[in-house]
Amino acid sequence: MDLHPFPDDWQTALCVAAHPDDLEYGTAAAVAGWTAAGKEVSYLLVTRGEAGIDGMSPEEAAPARAQEERDGAAEVGVDRVDFLDDFTDGIVEHGLPLRQAIAAQIRAVRPDLVVTLTFETTFPGGGVNQADHRAVGLAVLDACADAGNRWIFNDLIAEGLEPWSGVRYVAFSATSQPTHYVDVTETFEAGVASLEAHGQYLDALGPDYPSPRELLTSFMATPELAQHGEKVWTAQVLQR
Which UniProt keywords apply (predicted)? Predict the structure, then answer.
């Protein structure tokens, strides 16, 4: 697999996902390395994952899963975790409200790098990519441009959110067309701990569901990636 080292000429990153635990399926291991190197990383969750546990009502699941996300983020050195709260787990739609909400966060955080999940219809290996993931991934791509245009969502300026055109890179994880890699061999254990923090969610998936270590190993330790490190996270990186 012909991959390039992930860009290092940035200082601040915003990682955006639809649900608690989305970032923990690989990206968190890369985040652990970035924060250890002194880079500033924050998370934005579009929902609180309230529809994600069949045996738990949304009213119970939302605070439980939000706390699991905070706990998982702390394992990899992230202490800022924000939630949009205007969108409902399972029925997130790509559109102007979502683009504006993400653009507002980009203006507030002013990142050099924005990371999210692929908006492709399937994951590598053929699994179907969930609808919320697809909506959020595409909205992130659009919002990176929206954030820099004062004539789009110009009511944000009245809220004190001036345009931000400083997003240099947009990275999509779990893509079938990766362009860059991060060797996460040294931060793999932090990535495992980050996913393990989602205990209530993982327990609800049943005893036959693979453990966090098994899952992340299957994603990150493959023969195709061995030339880049023992364990590797990949992403499609677009330069803006």
Answer: Zinc
